[in-house]
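Section 3.1: Structural characterization of target chains.
Under the original work plan, the team committed to producing a structural model for every single-chain target entering the pipeline before any wet-lab resources were allocated. The record below documents one such target. The sequence was received from the expression subgroup and is listed exactly as submitted; it comprises 236 residues.
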Amino acid sequence: MNSLRIKDQPAGERPRERLAAQGPSALSQAELIAILLRTGLKGASAVDIGKQLMSKYGSLNSLAHASLEELQTVKGIGPDKAVTLVAAFALARKMAEELRDDAPLLETPEAIANLMREDSRLRKVETFQILLLNTRRRLVRVQPISQGTLDTILIHPRDVFKSAIAADAAAVVLLHNHPSGDPTPSDADIKVTRDLIRAGQLLKIDVLDHIILGCATQERTQDYVSLRELGYWAGC
């Protein structure tokens, strides 16, 4: 079976050459996937297969959830290419873990979202976590608190602050994901946030923010919200 190779394309259209000349931001998701796949099957280039994958799964987030078996249902994706794709997403998650281990400075919602994005991307249910910080606002560790259904989780202040006290944390950041992709806070999210702010005040542990992670869309370019930035700290 003949293969359509990336190197058979005109030089100006080759994803590898374009990445080297213009940087990865110049490439589409399908073109970046094509670099991993290297070659396509007869009648379809690697870029074509990348486009098929993005069309089938709709987003990198959904593609990252696909199993080896599911990936191989796409024409042109065999065992080797499926393994390559799964390995690429696994590396992204491991890189996120390394960033957490480097005790990053977490002074902005953007920094927190960047740190936790890959961790939250693959979670299919809402998972509530807290980021424990020292007095310099550097990460001590990430502590999972509760995991729930697709639309609800149960949080008790005791569980949140027990971990903070044990770690001698000076402050915490609340964080959870919305598997629906829409990071807009629910009434329950707002209530939990305010309850935990007040509990932290009693314990002299600052609750700095509550970040909700979702997915970016064409209409919503930011994939997270900060409840502090939305004004929910006022009056607490």
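The chain has a mean pLDDT of 85.
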